[in-house]
Amino acid sequence: MINFYNFTIEALKKYLIESGFKAFSADQLYKWVYEQKVTNFDDMTNISKDLREFLKQNIEISNLEIHSVSESTDGTFKYLFKLQDGNLIEAVLMTYDYGKSVCVTSQVGCNMGCSFCASGLLRKTRDLEIHEIVRQITTIEAEQDIKVTHTVVMGTGEPFDNYQNVIDFIKVINYKHGLQIGSRHITVSTCGIIPRIYDYAKETIKSNLAISLHAPNDRLRTRIMRINKSFPLKEVIEACNDYFDQTSRRITFEYILLRGVNDSLQHADELSNLIRGMNAYVNIIPYNEVEEFTYKKTDKARASAFYMQLTKRGINATLRREQGADIDAACGQLRYKKELE
Ligand code: SAH
Predict the structure, then answer these.
(1) Which atom of ligand 1 is nearest to the CA of 214?
(2) Of 11, 5, 12, nearest to 139 (Cα)?
């Protein structure tokens, strides 16, 4: 059986034609599934009987199995899903005044090996299929009876290490008869896989780009993020400039503050020099401490000083408020705990 949520609209049209049916049914099917939430082919009254029978034999429509849900005191929810092959993945639902945002996972585990991140403690087992990323959202929407308005690909995994599936996922959720999440409400975060940044800039759907920077020079960045050896900072910045030229979209630089490692005023100055003149802003993220690592978070006063220093140097920055830390749902905490294996 093929999962319905795996089809972009183009792929569904192609599949229907190759199976001897008409392409126009693709939009009808999308509307039934994504807009009407109908999952039984027999209820799809404008679909011919022949096609319904064919679909029943070949396609399944179902949400993910929820293994468990935790709710934070701040209203953040963490979902743990069990995939068909037994792998467990997490997604996080956050509520803002502007809407509901889901942070989705793109891979089972991660191979990037950033020295501060819990996700990397579990090596990548496999990439997620398109439907496994889409269904993180549809399952949460169904369970909470809500409409998700924003999506960030910032859960476990490196989205640009599962490039095509992430792009197709974006096509599905952005489509006018799909989940209808606007391109400006979709953000992909990468540790800096340069060739894919150039590819991303050329995609027809212009969604947002966030770069996990975390250090203002190569020496320090290579020490904490080994991907920097292959893809050094200067070239990451060049790729970002290309993305901006192609899309006119403002870039987000994520910068976690690690006490005594990357959080001094000199680091802030260096960071200002690195990105000066770019249409970008720095999202300063409090570090969520991870048991297995020795990194500590920067205290509030020092974090504010770092923020002020960037602002003084003319750099747009925000100091992100932390959400969901009490349920291990905050950035870099996503991984299923060993006892669940
Ligand atoms: N692989 C992608 C997306 C997943 S990580 C990337 O690297 O961007 C999402 C963000 O959380 C990244 O900026 C990552 O560096 C950051 N992060 C990882 N561990 C963290 C931690 N313990 N505390 C705060 N942020 C963390």
Answers:
(1) 15
(2) 5
Q: Ligand 1: which residue has its CA nearest to atom 4?
A: 154
Q: Which residues line ligand 1 (CB under 6 A)?
A: 112, 114, 116-117, 154, 158, 189-191, 212, 254, 256, 285, 287-288, 290, 331-332
**122, 133, 151, 212, best to mutate for ligand 1 pocket (most atoms within 8 Å of CB):** 212
CATH 1.10.150.530 positions along the chain are: 2-60
Tens digits of per-residue pLDDT, 44-70? 999 999 999 999 999 999 999 999 999
pTM over 0.85: yes
Helix axes 233-247, 194-202, angle to 10 degrees: 0
CATH number among 3.20.20.70, 3.40.710.10, 2.40.240.20, 3.40.1350.10, domain 65-340: 3.20.20.70
Where along the chain do the CATH 3.20.20.70 domains lie? 65-340
- Over residues 74-108, the pLDDT tens digits come to 889 999 999 999 999 999 999 999 999 999 999 99
CA distances from 205 to 170, 184, 224, 243, 251 (A): 8, 10, 32, 13, 16
Q: How far is ligand 1, taken at its centre, from the CA of residue 40, in Å? A: 39
What residues act catalytically? 90, 331
70 CA distance to ligand 1 middle (Å): 20
Q: Are 174 and 182 a contacting pair, CB within 8 Å?
A: yes
CATH number of the 2-60 domain: 1.10.150.530
Q: Which two tokens stand for residue 45?
A: 């009254």
For the chain, give the percent of residues with pLDDT over 90: 89
Angle of the 265-275 helix axis to the 233-247 helix axis, nearest 10 = 50
- pLDDT tens for 147-199 read 999 999 999 999 999 999 999 999 999 999 999 999 999 999 999 999 999 99
